[in-house]
Design brief:
With 293 residues, this protein is an alpha/beta fold. The chain contains eight helices and eleven strands. It has a single domain, classed as Glycosidases (TIM Barrel).
Length: 293
């Protein structure tokens, strides 16, 4: 029969200290695990619509405010009443974000989609985990693709946000298949409608972002917005209608009133069912022309 090991007071004390340390480590590990789980982003589900309430930083996407019912009436003030296009004069596209996860680009191509924009960044704190699959996947499928930045004007400066965007997928090359980066500027998902800026300050912020983007890439970025937000937060500024293509968001059978003195829209996000769908104002050759600059 084996003999019992003798235990000295010193050994007993060391065992007690070790046991206590293990207990603390275990508690800490459980706490860290719980914290990590609570901080983990919502897993994307392409079969479910994106939420419109209680968005957390990084979760905004092009059109969230239109889905939330903030697009406003079709006729607001003066402006061009844009008409829908004949099928021969338009090109189907989609825009996606992290909410869509891995996109089946072959299926989108087979449905007629020929161009796509992917959310790359938000503010100076978020990058899309699915950006590579979405941005490169659409390109490999044969689509003309582009990236977009969700602006947070009450956060980091316009210059730093433009630089962050270019550094994280928002660059451009004249390859005939890469569209200029897009500035998504719409209702604030996280606070006051106009991000706490006056109309003149908002116009300055937009101008600064666009200027920095052009300095870095040589391209004028399209502006994605809604008629109601543009009128409320920029005073319906006409500062960009000769340089920056308009991407209007309006979920209806027509694009409604165009803001900012734009004589026509270049892109129109017209529905979010079952994915954000868009029309390009022109045939595929015009999409390529925008890509080439």
């Amino acid at each position: 029969m084996p003999q019992a090991l003798s235990t000295t007071p010193e050994v007993t004390m060391k065992r007690s200290v070790l046991s206590a340390a293990c207990a603390v480590a275990g508690t800490l590990a459980l706490s860290l695990s719980a914290a990590t789980a609570s901080a983990a982003p919502t897993k994307p589900n392409p079969n479910q619509p994106e939420p419109t309430k209680n968005l957390q930083r990084g979760q905004a996407y092009a059109g969230w405010s239109v889905r939330a019912g903030k697009q406003g009436p079709a006729k607001t003030g003066t402006g061009v009443q844009a008409a829908p296009l004949a099928a021969a004069a338009r090109t189907a596209g989609i825009d996606v974000s992290g909410w869509q996860g891995n996109v089946d680009w072959a299926a989108q191509w087979n449905s007629g989609v020929r161009w796509a924009y992917t959310k790359a960044t938000e503010g100076n704190y978020y990058t899309n985990d699915y950006f590579a699959q979405q941005y490169n996947g659409s390109y490999r499928q044969g689509m003309v693709r582009g990236a977009y930045h969700f602006a947070i004007p009450d956060g980091a400066s316009a210059v730093s946000q433009a630089q962050y965007f270019v550094a994280h997928g928002g660059g451009w090359s004249r390859d005939g298949k890469t569209l200029p980066g897009m500035l998504d500027i719409e209702f604030n998902p996280y606070g006051s409608t106009c991000y706490g800026l006056s109309q003149s300050a908002m116009v300055t912020w937009i101008r600064t972002w666009l200027g920095e983007y052009k300095r870095l890439t040589g391209r004028d970025a399209p502006i994605y917005t809604t008629n109601s937000w543009w009128r409320q937060c920029t005073g319906n500024s006409t500062a960009f209608n000769q340089t920056n293509p308009l991407w209007i968001a309006y979920y209806s059978s027509t694009p409604g009133t165009l803001p900012g003195g734009w004589p026509y829209y270049t892109m129109w996000q017209y529905t979010a069912t079952p994915i954000d769908k868009d029309w390009f104002n022109g045939d595929l050759s015009r999409v390529v022309a925008l890509a080439n600059g």
